[in-house]
Amino acid sequence: MPVDERPPTLPRVWRGLLLVVVGVLLGIAGDRLIVAPTRISEVTPLPQDTRAAVQPVVSRVGDRIIVPEGSPLRTLLAVAPPTLKEVARTLVLPATVEADPSRTVKVLPPVTGRITELKVQLGGRVVQGQELAVIDSGDLAQAYSDIEKARSTVTLTKKALDRQLNLEKAGGAAIKDREQAQSDYAQAISELERSESRLRAMGIPADQKEQSRLLSVKAPVSGSVIDLQAAPGAFVNDPTAAMMTIANLDTIWVTANVPEKDIAFVFPGQSVKVTYRSYPDDVFEGKVLFVSDVVESDTRRNKVRIAFDNRDKMLKPNMFADASFAAPAMSRLMVPTSALLMTNDATSVFVEVSDWAFERRNVEIAYQEGTAVAIKTGIRPGERVVVKGAVRLND
């Protein structure tokens, strides 16, 4: 049977087109049903608690940090004014006992020679004029010889001058001979005076009759032998090297080294209380004698000396002590250490400039006292600072 090759009829074509259109419409409707909920949620207002959750914790306006209302940071911060405190600070420093340099004498050997006797001991007390040591010296013998020669020359030149004066009166002498005789006599007198001065420098009277090679060294002042560098049999040949040191300890110095940062607390005339390790139950009261004008370059400390009367010799050089300096009372602004922020070499705090608005400000610390610090500069009385949680503002 032959195949039917006739084209499709018109109603079948329309049915196909209708199916395509219906499919497109169904796809559009489905897309709207899916997208519509999302669009609705975009325009629907968020609940009140949701808006609070996304609100910023802090905001910045220039150099100010503002903590807005509702920010959870407000519950973590504590703001308070600094406390004004009358502070009478006491500075306690280690100190040592020293001999007064103005009452200390080094005994130098007046001549070279050998020490034959030593009459004192280290730490012993001597009185002015007391014999300290005996030196066998060739210099002393030479000094005696020089003075005898000078006396003989004076006698000889005096006779020659008298002779020339008599001849001049008789008219039988030249003027130049008389002048030469006068010059020789003047030189002899000068040499005699020099020889006598040398003997006196050795501690020997120029008119002493007995001559000996032994020289007795006498104490120039009364006091205690605080240093001894001589011994029997030793030879002394350096006139600048002291054999011993004698110090009058009726007045002693207590020397304290004040740190550079505390120099402002110490001044001349200031009252000081000193205790000694040897007498822990006794307190010695004195006044600052002077404050050195120079800070020691190696220790960065300043020497302060206090003078004490020591006639009973209780206080001895090189004893250790503690010196308490009472500084005058002054008003200081105190803040807790929790308010401080350290950045590099600067110390700062957050100051409240208006309600919950803060500004960072550098401060200078005078000193620390327990868990609080005294502010020297940076904040004023009446201002409020963040005393707790300041690091959260810093972050």
Main features:
conserved putative lor/sdh protein from methanococcus maripaludis s2 fold, 7-stranded antiparallel sheet, alpha+beta, Elongation Factor Tu (Ef-tu), domain 3, elongated, 38% strand, Helix Hairpins, disordered N terminus, 25 strands, 6-stranded antiparallel β-barrel, 395 residues
Q: How would you characterize the overall build of this protein?
A:
The chain contains five helices and 25 strands. With 395 residues, the chain is an alpha+beta fold. Among the domains are: 64-88 and 330-394, conserved putative lor/sdh protein from methanococcus maripaludis s2 fold (Beta Barrel), CATH 2.40.420.20; 92-101 and 247-326, Efflux pump adaptor protein, beta barrel domain (Elongation Factor Tu (Ef-tu), domain 3, Beta Barrel), CATH 2.40.30; 138-212, Helix Hairpins. Strands 1, 2, 3, 20, 21, 22 and 25 form a seven-stranded antiparallel sheet that branches. A hairpin with a 2-residue loop joins strand 20 (341-343) and strand 21. The longest helix is centred in the N-terminal third of the chain and has 34 residues, at 10-43. It is elongated, with a radius of gyration of 51 Å. It starts with 9 loop residues before the first helix and ends with a helix.
Q: Helices, strands, pairings?
A:
Layout: H1 10-43, H2 48-53, E1 59-61, E2 64-66, E3 78-80, E4 83-87, E5 90-99, E6 104-107, E7 113-118, E8 125-126, E9 131-136, H3 138-170, H4 175-201, E10 214-218, E11 223-228, E12 235-236, E13 244-247, E14 251-259, E15 271-276, E16 279-295, E17 301-309, E18 320-326, E19 330-336, E20 341-343, E21 346-354, E22 357-362, E23 364-369, E24 372-377, E25 384-388, H5 390-394
Antiparallel strand pairs: 1-2, 2-22, 3-25, 4-19, 5-14, 5-18, 6-13, 7-9, 7-12, 8-11, 9-10, 11-13, 14-17, 15-16, 15-18, 16-17, 19-24, 20-21, 21-22, 21-25, 23-24
